[in-house]
Hints:
The protein is mostly helical.
Amino acid sequence: xxxxxxxxxxxxxxxxxxxxxxxxxxxxxxxxxxxxxxxxxxxxxxxxxxxxxxxxxxxxxxxxxxxxxxxxxxxxxxxxxxxxxxxxxxxxxxxxx
Length: 97
């Protein structure tokens, strides 16, 4: 591979990453909106915002996917915890807490 080809590959790959980033961010927005629906359901059911059992299930699923795809489990768990916290914040807004 020469420099010209390497630069082309670099630019094409970066474009693909930009597309993926946009999709990921859109999915995060969708996930956050679902948190609002969950909050409404929890209010009717008289449930707390925090659900440690469900949160652990989500983390375990993420670790399993990370392991299967040979990516860093700890970092994936951090990402999932951030997403969970974002949902929790949305639920607090909806529930007025």
